[in-house]
Amino acid sequence: MKTLIIIPARGGSKRIPRKNVRIMCGKPLICYSIENARALSEGMDVDVAVSTDDEELENIVKKRGVKVIERPAELAGDSVTLDPVIYHALLYMEKEKGISYDTVITMQATSPTLKKETIEKAIRYFETSGYDTVISAMNKPHLSWGIKDGKIVKNYEKRLNSQELPPNYTETGGFMITKRECVTKEGRIGKNVNIFEIPEDEAVDIDTYSDWVLCENILRRKRIVFRTVGKRQFGMGHVYRCLTLAYKLTGHDITFILDRDSDIGIERIQASNFPLIVAEGESDLEKILAEKRPDILVNDILDTDIGYMTMVNKYAKRIVNFEDVGPGAKYADAVINALYEKGEKLHNEYYGSKYFCIRDEFLEEEPKEFSQEVENMLIIFGGADPSDLTARMYDICKVLHGKHPKIKFHFLIGFAYPYKDEIRDDPDNNIFIHRDVKRVSSYMNRMDLAVTSQGRTVYELASMGVPSVVLAQNEREAEHVFAGIQNGFINLGIGKNTDALTIISTIRWLIQTPRVREEMRKLQLTRDFSKGQERVMRIILDDPDEEE
């Protein structure tokens, strides 16, 4: 089937002057449609021509090896429709080539986000469907209104949510595929017509400056893959950090990859509605990466080895690792270890609390006023609590109640804690259980004292100025040096190795010494976590403005 692709491109434009030759993300706007058309000609019997009235456009097109058809002045005015322009170009090409085309495709120069693969699918659909004409369109249902007999009237029968409304197709200008016999000076659309629906991010037709800005943002978007882990022995900190970043990287193409045994992590990512791929092993992971070819791969899986990093480097353009002190770390483009302090940045390493990604909710809440009396105490050990420190503190709080009957003990239980149904409210001992809390900050900023593990929660407590006793979940967590007295924490080491008497006596000492708690609070509030997300996103996106 012999096909002619015609790209109409005038030099004049009223709303965006000279838009077809303006630079869009590093190249003239018209180059995007030229590249798509030329890519199609590699696998199909296709000729490509640009119809223009502009010398500068002509030079740009010829430089890229594409045929230019000089448009007559009478077809270059503002009021001229595309139909006679396409007809003129078709007759010109048929005369020059001495052939008759079977199919004519109009591709606008103003659809730079349209992908070659989408046009290929549309052509295959046209060739097999039997339609005279197939037009690119976007389905965007809306409750709309019109005018009838001079009055505003509704264009719908019943008010429904947008996803329940009937289709509302809008032409995008991306392409029109039609049979040769349908192309005349007056039109290009045959009697038997259908639309080919394209994604919203490929449907932008540049007509205004806001369209231009939107296209630039779409073209700059990155394919970002988060590979993370969420299972009981590792907790949920890795998953929550990745989600925090994913929510901030608005506009980019985000995908999560978790291994099959990351059961609790899979559950949480599914609830977030981000695209998720479950890998069945490293060979399956390699196949996934070979298909995705991410611009950026974020590894939040703790230590990596050389073999793994060698494999992922074959498919990802940029690799950023979190909390990686393994031998594979040196093969990453950047390693962010916010939970460790090593002073100066060493080549690809970023250490220290300045790179901690605190959740947005903590940037919106304000710490409560300091209280001389401890009225509310928080117990929080993360989403999974792998060492079951919750159960230990549940018994300890009953003992503390006997000495301090006015204190309320608030347990925040994570959704992945396996014994959450066994821990219940105990009003007689002022113990209250809060399960899978959606906004942790709204609890923290009401607390006078806390007991926690040594992961990301200590940073959140510091941001709310809550003096805290720390019990590490394991040896690796105990290496995180932020949770020390220098930052307003009493660290009792690994929780399972700390006896109940020590925990009780430490908590009671803090309850009875408000001056110590006040000093701890002051130390915590000297830390500023507000720029951590921004710093980390700059590193991930390889932004040269990332501050030292």
Protein architecture, described:
The chain has 548 residues and is an alpha/beta fold. The chain has three domains: 3-218, Spore Coat Polysaccharide Biosynthesis Protein SpsA, Chain A; 221-358 and 535-540, Rossmann fold, CATH 3.40.50.11190; 369-525, Rossmann fold. The chain has 17 helices and 24 strands. The strands form five sheets. A seven-stranded mixed beta sheet has the order 5-4-1-6-10-7-11, sandwiched between helices. α6 links the parallel β12 and β13 (253-259). α11 (389-403) packs across α15. It is elongated and about 100 Å long. The model has no long low-confidence stretch (mean pLDDT 93).
How is the secondary structure organized here?
Blueprint: E1 3-8, E2 23-24, E3 27-28, H1 30-41, E4 46-52, H2 55-63, E5 67-70, H3 82-97, E6 103-107, H4 116-129, E7 133-139, E8 145-148, E9 151-154, E10 169-179, E11 193-197, H5 209-220, E12 223-228, H6 237-248, E13 253-259, H7 263-272, E14 276-279, H8 282-292, E15 296-300, H9 306-313, E16 318-322, E17 334-337, E18 349-351, H10 360-364, E19 376-380, H11 389-403, E20 408-413, E21 431-435, H12 441-444, E22 449-452, H13 457-463, E23 468-472, H14 475-478, E24 489-494, H15 500-512, H16 514-525, H17 532-540
